[in-house]
Amino acid sequence: MSWLLAVAVLAGFAVGPAAATDHIVGANHGWNPNINYSLWSGNQTFYVGDLISFRYQKGTHNVFEVNETGYDNCTMAGVAGNWTSGKDFIPLPEARRYYFICGNGFCLQGMKVAITVHPSPHNASSEGSGRRGSTGSAGEEAAAAELGTKSAAWLGALAVAAAAVAFC
Ligand SMILES: *[C@@H]1O[C@H](CO)[C@@H](O)[C@H](O)[C@H]1NC(C)=O
Ligand SMILES: *[C@@H]1O[C@H](CO)[C@@H](O)[C@H](O)[C@H]1NC(C)=O
Ligand SMILES: *[C@@H]1O[C@H](CO)[C@@H](O)[C@H](O)[C@H]1NC(C)=O
Ligand SMILES: *[C@@H]1O[C@H](CO)[C@@H](O)[C@H](O)[C@H]1NC(C)=O
Ligand SMILES: *[C@@H]1O[C@H](CO)[C@@H](O)[C@H](O)[C@H]1NC(C)=O
Ligand SMILES: *[C@@H]1O[C@H](CO)[C@@H](O)[C@H](O)[C@H]1NC(C)=O
Description:
The chain has helices at residues 2-15, 37-42, 68-73, 130-133, 138-167; strands at residues 22-24, 46-47, 51-55, 63-66, 81-83, 87-91, 97-101, 112-118. It is of the alpha/beta class.
């Protein structure tokens, strides 16, 4: 009985610190033409360490990070990265403006989003300096974040299972 309790407590502890938010662009509308993404981004608060993720039909759309000129004019000005998987998790490691557009012409039909990332409200450097100093690629960080979410979910399920057994 007591070891079951210990498993549940440990699982709860492991789930706790996974605080990074995944902001899904367009929510259930995803990344598609003729959506006003200013309305979506205006309702989100982004912090350093969060993710922005784009869900779309692979091959039809894509994601390019550009600068403000590229965003305003739907061009590749200041291009800083591109993603094409159809389910792209993009880390937001800096407190600044980020600009994303669709790179195949659909930017002109509204597929552009600008966001402001704020410094972490609770000082991030006190909870693990590894991330801040990391030079790993965006893909690696995103993969790590996704893995973290999955293992957290698994541990959560384990906690529920342990609790269920405890009540039998
Ligand atoms: C999106 O909505 C905002 C707020 O209503 C508005 O100012 C802006 O012009 C809209 N953008 C487009 C492309 O319609
Ligand atoms: C946030 O969403 C609500 C409804 O979902 C909407 O009424 C409101 O205008 C949005 N706020 C901004 C800043 O876009
Ligand atoms: C791009 O947009 C900016 C405004 O942000 C404007 O000043 C500039 O002339 C535009 N450039 C082109 C090539 O359209
Ligand atoms: C964006 O990048 C282009 C090309 O590097 C540059 O000419 C332009 O000044 C940049 N715009 C801003 C707002 O930094
Ligand atoms: C997209 O990014 C890859 C590296 O991730 C780069 O090799 C490629 O040139 C980029 N494509 C464009 C069109 O910028
Ligand atoms: C966090 O605290 C360190 C010093 O402990 C400071 O150098 C850093 O700027 C702080 N970061 C933020 C986001 O407040």
